[in-house]
Amino acid sequence: MKQPIRIGFLQPYSSIYPYFAEHLLTGFFLGFGRDPFRQNDIQFIPHFVESGSGTKVAEGARKLLQFDQVDMLSGLINYAALPELTPILEQKQKLGFFFDLGDSIPKFDYLSPNVFFSSNQLWQSQFALGQWAPKHFGTPGVILMPIYDAGYDLHTSFQQGLSWSGGGEVLLSVVNAKEKNPNKMRVRPYLKEVKKTAPAFVHALFSGPNGVEFLKEWVDCGLNKEIPLVVSEPMTYPEWLADVQHLDLELYTASLYDPEDVSKQNRKFKQKFAKTARQPVNTFALLGYEAGLLFKEVFSQLKKRDFDTVKKRFQSETIRGPRNERSFYPDGGFSLPPINIVKINTSRTGIRKMVIDQGQPLKYNETIFEDIRKAMPTGWQNPYLCY
């Protein structure tokens, strides 16, 4: 019997999405057209890489390739780990296919023909928001975020979008944690200042429970519907927004994926995932599903271990999935995602989303992002957002 394709999976710790790997791999096998619990064509071998640092990722890669004898590597990784990871893949002539949420604009000093990415390109939605918000609300604006979210390209992408659209003033504040409880934020002093100065809009960048806490404080301070609140897309994911929907919130965001899209591909994805996982779809399931569609296209070469042909196909192959066309090699173009500007109103009876405009995506290597790419890395590593 033919042995399954063995894929080493580099898995960091995430306190916000502890089951991201299960969701991602379930999505992968559904896109691949297999039952996740009964198929024997592909086997994922997980390896825990702690916070996802370059050193830990490199150690995990060596272990998976040398001792577990995997055929290729995958996993959720930081772009910052590539300088240590890529030489290992090239020395062994192995293929790497990796996932990231896209909180950082890709910065490739060297783009290997062995390395491919399923990226959510979250920075694209931030760039689109930066273009849109000042045009509709004016300036000055205020960006608020905790240290947890401050080490990446989300706020700088927003600022570049603002510059692209004609400029304007935007002030940035990093919210401190409480001294006796570093997991809690001191949001209220910043919101009191917002109420006092009344900026044209506030852009909030918070992840997971911090986002829920911020929205509660926003309402408690009497700012809801008084000052436009523009939030990052993860703050509007249903698993978090459901906890505060009773607060009658009014929010604006930019969305890279609409679970309610009525396309045939999206309905198929949702039905498959709900039947298997018995829960709604999420971003990690989506990334996995899109990758599964790609692997399905090249499975005949995978079965033969013809990885040279697989690499060549990955460089130009596109798939049509729940959010239309996707590609996986940066120099092949990284298919630009459709971006909806969305107004959200919540109530006890539900969450209402209305598309009010379209955002403009840009390629990762546009010259406007040069300043971001040249900026010195902060050294802060966040496995949830994958720096």
Notes on the protein architecture:
The chain is an alpha/beta fold. The strands form five sheets. The protein has a five-stranded parallel β-sheet with strand order 2-1-3-4-5, sandwiched between helices. Strands 7-6-10-11 form a four-stranded parallel β-sheet, sandwiched between helices. Helix 5 (154-164) links the parallel strand 6 (141-146) and strand 7 (170-175). It has helices spanning 20-32, 54-67, 82-92, 122-137, 154-164, 188-197, 209-220, 238-241, 264-277, 283-297, 299-303, 307-316, 370-374, and strands at 5-11, 42-48, 72-76, 95-100, 115-119, 141-146, 170-175, 177-178, 181-185, 201-204, 229-231, 250-255, 318-321, 324-327, 339-347, 350-359.
Brief rundown of the structure:
With 387 residues, this protein is of the alpha/beta class. The chain has helices at residues 20-32, 54-67, 82-92, 122-137, 154-164, 188-197, 209-220, 238-241, 264-277, 283-297, 299-303, 307-316, 370-374, and strands at 5-11, 42-48, 72-76, 95-100, 115-119, 141-146, 170-175, 177-178, 181-185, 201-204, 229-231, 250-255, 318-321, 324-327, 339-347, 350-359. The strands form five sheets. It has a five-stranded parallel beta sheet with strand order 2-1-3-4-5, sandwiched between helices. A four-stranded parallel beta sheet has the order 7-6-10-11, sandwiched between helices.
